């Protein structure tokens, strides 16, 4: 068995010597052209030999074909093997896909270095997974501002799972940390763009700066399945308990002495605007907010909720202090 394996290795080595690098590149490019034309069987045939000879682009493209079941029967195990081979050679897209595939099959600890790398280059699926990990504190250090920032970035690309995760985080992460997350998200985005450019430049140098690097088969992997966000510790202040529902009068009469003023109590900021309405419904019956106006303002990608109409700072501060004693975080502002 060992002799047979050595014979195969020798044959492959001989083939690698006989096959010029330009010819291998041409086969990969020919495969991409066939793939783009919908000739998946032809594309796979063009990629097989370069992939066996160690061409990372061919390995990645062939992995995509197995992942999608185009030109070959779908085979996640074969796709994983090929992604791993290409990733080991520094192929960034292969490394990103490999990490997501490992995570989806349950090998989460093994996947996290790849997920973190992909998130660092701006992949929204990886940002989603890493953000959940930072929120839960299981696969990454617990860091709620970073978790919220990463989910905000993933949500900005339209990743559907991110919105529901943010809605859960809105209930547990304090207002100050959510505000910190907005500045952090800007910094993470800038770092991701810089890192991606730097990583790609490093790959080009490692490959000898080919004049025409082979194009890659356009086949993004499906978005990861939603990950359950762990329930926050009981010591973390969550939303105040909703008051019992009661029917409102059809035409409520405004108080004769409705307070007026420019001071406000900031009640929360939300990546999902509907959560601001939900919080107001939960808090509107509290005496600290009696007769106050609901005010919403846009702040970047956040909706900020205020109770407006306090005549002085001391009046707003007294209301905020009372709210905090009831478990509702808040800030006094003008």
Automatic annotation (TrEMBL):
Residues 257-334 form the SPOR domain. It comes from the Bacteria. SMART domains: SEL1. Residues 1-26 form the signal peptide. SUPFAM superfamilies: HCP-like, Sporulation related repeat. This is Sporulation protein. Pfam families: Sel1, SPOR. InterPro entries: ISR_Activator (IPR052748), Sel1-like (IPR006597), SPOR-like_dom (IPR007730), SPOR-like_sf (IPR036680), TPR-like_helical_dom_sf (IPR011990). GO terms for molecular function: peptidoglycan binding. Keywords: Signal.
């Amino acid at each position: 068995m060992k002799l047979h394996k050595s014979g195969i290795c020798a044959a492959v080595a001989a083939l690698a010597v006989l096959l010029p690098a330009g010819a291998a590149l041409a086969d990969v490019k020919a495969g991409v052209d066939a793939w783009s034309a919908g000739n998946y069987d032809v594309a796979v045939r063009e990629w097989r030999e370069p992939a066996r000879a160690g061409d990372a682009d061919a390995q990645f493209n062939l992995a995509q074909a197995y992942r999608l079941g185009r030109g070959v029967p779908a085979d996640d195990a074969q796709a994983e093997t090929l992604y791993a081979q290409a990733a080991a050679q520094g192929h960034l897209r292969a490394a990103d896909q490999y990490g997501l595939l490992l995570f989806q099959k349950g090998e989460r600890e093994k996947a996290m270095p790849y997920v973190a790398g992909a998130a660092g280059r701006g992949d929204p699926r990886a940002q989603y997974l890493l953000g959940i990990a930072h929120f839960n504190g299981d696969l990454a250090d617990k860091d709620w501002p970073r978790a919220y920032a990463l989910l905000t970035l993933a949500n900005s690309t339209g990743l559907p799972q991110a919105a529901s995760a943010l809605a859960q985080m809105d209930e547990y992460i304090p207002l100050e940390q959510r505000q910190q997350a907005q500045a952090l998200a800007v910094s993470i985005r800038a770092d991701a763009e810089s890192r991606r450019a730097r990583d790609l430049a490093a790959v080009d140098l490692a490959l000898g700066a080919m004049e025409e690097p082979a194009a890659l088969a356009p086949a993004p992997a499906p978005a990861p399945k939603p990950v359950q966000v762990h329930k926050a510790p009981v010591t973390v202040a969550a939303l105040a308990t909703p008051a019992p529902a009661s029917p409102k009068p059809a035409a409520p009469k405004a108080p004769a002495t409705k307070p007026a003023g420019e001071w406000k109590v900031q009640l929360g900021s939300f990546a999902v605007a509907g959560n601001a309405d939900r919080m107001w419904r939960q808090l509107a019956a509290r005496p600290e907010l009696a007769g106050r106006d609901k005010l919403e303002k846009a702040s970047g990608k956040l909706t900020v909720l205020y109770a407006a109409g306090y005549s002085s700072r001391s009046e707003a501060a007294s209301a905020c202090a009372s709210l905090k004693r009831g478990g509702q975080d808040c800030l006094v502002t003008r």
